[in-house]
TrEMBL record:
Protein family membership: Belongs to the sigma-70 factor family. ECF subfamily.
Residue span(s) of domain RNA polymerase sigma factor 70 region 4 type: 102-153
Keywords, ordered alphabetically: DNA-binding, Sigma factor, Transcription, Transcription regulation
Region (Disordered): 157-180
GO MF term list: DNA binding; sigma factor activity
GO biological process terms, semicolon-separated: DNA-templated transcription initiation
A Pfam family of this chain: Sigma70_r4_2
InterPro entries in alphabetical order: RNA_pol_sigma-70-like, RNA_pol_sigma-70_dom, RNA_pol_sigma70_r2, RNA_pol_sigma70_r4_t2, RNA_pol_sigma_r2, RNA_pol_sigma_r3/r4-like, WH-like_DNA-bd_sf
Protein's name according to its UniProt entry: RNA polymerase sigma-70 factor (ECF subfamily)
RNA polymerase sigma-70 region domain boundaries: 21-73
């Protein structure tokens, strides 16, 4: 007989930390936060999640909403300048992959705030309906925002396959008409 063990709130929290905390970190970075702000907001978020773990229905949605709010609080309460920060998390990552990831984040960072958030979550593998839930928005709004963000990024990507650098128009221009 196979018995299915019930997953406790503590186990779900542990799994979230193991698999999704890095994504949450990336989400905060894509919102334009400095590493010290991300650490503070992430710590505040994880503490709040742990304290309310038995009452949270959707852990992922709660995490992103709480992180966004925690980042706003951290930014408004900044008093002193941060000390140099070293990210040990990326010290063991393949340098080429890390460089590509940094380039993607830099491009996403050029977008308006909502487009940054939607693109970052899309980059992390979330579907528009999930993003809508995480951001407290409508799925159609997320899809439109995603379309606009992709269109803006498309012209900024260096070495695009179509040979455009981003400065040229994406539509071919029509030859001038000669009069009859």
């Amino acid at each position: 007989m196979i018995t299915i063990a019930k997953i406790t709130a503590g186990q779900e929290f542990t799994e979230f930390c193991r698999h999704d905390a890095g994504r949450l970190y990336g989400f905060l970075v894509s919102a334009g936060a400095h590493p010290h702000e991300v650490e503070d907001a992430l710590q505040e978020t994880l503490v709040a999640m742990w304290l309310r773990r038995d009452k949270i229905e959707n852990l992922r949605a709660y995490a992103y909403t709480t992180a966004r709010n925690a980042l706003a609080r951290v930014r408004t309460s900044q008093i002193e300048e941060p000390v140099d920060w070293i990210d040990a998390q990326f010290s063991m990552v393949d340098p080429q992959r890390a460089e590509a990831h940094e380039q993607v984040l830099a491009l996403i960072g050029t977008l308006p705030r909502l487009q940054q958030q939607v693109m970052a979550l899309t980059y992390d593998g979330y579907a528009p309906t999930e993003i809508a839930e995480l951001l407290g928005s409508d799925a159609n709004t997320v899809r439109v925002t995603l379309h606009k963000a992709r269109r803006k990024l498309r012209v900024q990507i260096p070495g695009r396959p179509d040979g455009l650098s981003g400065d040229e128009p994406t539509e071919p221009s029509s030859p001038p008409r000669s009069g009859p």
